[in-house]
Amino acid sequence: MTAMPPTFLDVDGTSIAVRHAKGAAPGIVWLGGYKSDMLGTKAQTLSDWTEKEGRAFLRHDYSGHGESGGAFADGTISTWLAQSLAVFGRFTQGRQILVGSSMGAWIALRMVQELRKAGDSNVAGLVLLAPAPDFTAELVEPALTKAQKRALAEKGFFEEPSDYSTEPYIYTNALIEDGRNNLVMTGPIDTHCPVHILQGLADADVPASHALKLVGLLPSDDVTLSLIPEGDHRLSRPQDLDMLVRSVDAMARKGN
């Protein structure tokens, strides 16, 4: 089935592609991962499920991703966070559940912080898949090779082959430096809402130890951690998608 064309929202001069379906609250807000787009398997699965349920669903592409404008290499966590907040503010009404995949989990946690700061308490829950908050500082920087450090110093970026795309991942100095300004795993994280984390134990990109560290920083009475024995970073097998839908459904029913 061909997806309907997106609508576009101008955020600081960049055209951000958005797909929004109105429906019951709490609505579902999808936040994708690094170099992924809103037409991926998990986002589309949630789109189909929310349509069937009559529940509101919102998704967008960050700048440099999918159908949005801008260059991928110009993006930072702050840039993509600002775009996500702008989309959230423009298209949502009432209570919402943020569903963040990989880097999208970092964006979701930062969104909660910024929304709370602005007096907005409309986040009813978080469902985080293979969460990668602080990945620039926690996962990328400690593993930098001499060649990568040299590339960052001389060119301002380095490239890595991607298992998920024909195009390489690009990591820039700006991304890494800006990441340090958005760290969330430096102390207790009070989300003021329930959190459900889905983590594959066969994840080669974000180790399960990262999810366990995150759990340790969240209020334990509101956190569920589901470890998936053979789940990889994508969590896109039929059984993974079923668990995603069941997790979001349970969170939505709790938030009604």
UniProtKB/TrEMBL annotation:
Pfam families: Hydrolase_4 (PF12146)
Keyword entries, A-Z: Hydrolase
One MF term in the entry's GO annotations: hydrolase activity
Annotated InterPro entries: AB_hydrolase_fold, ABHD10_acyl-thioesterase, Hydrolase_4
Gene3D superfamilies linked: alpha/beta hydrolase
Top-level taxonomic group: Bacteria
Protein name: Pimeloyl-ACP methyl ester carboxylesterase
Species the sequence originates in: Mesorhizobium sangaii
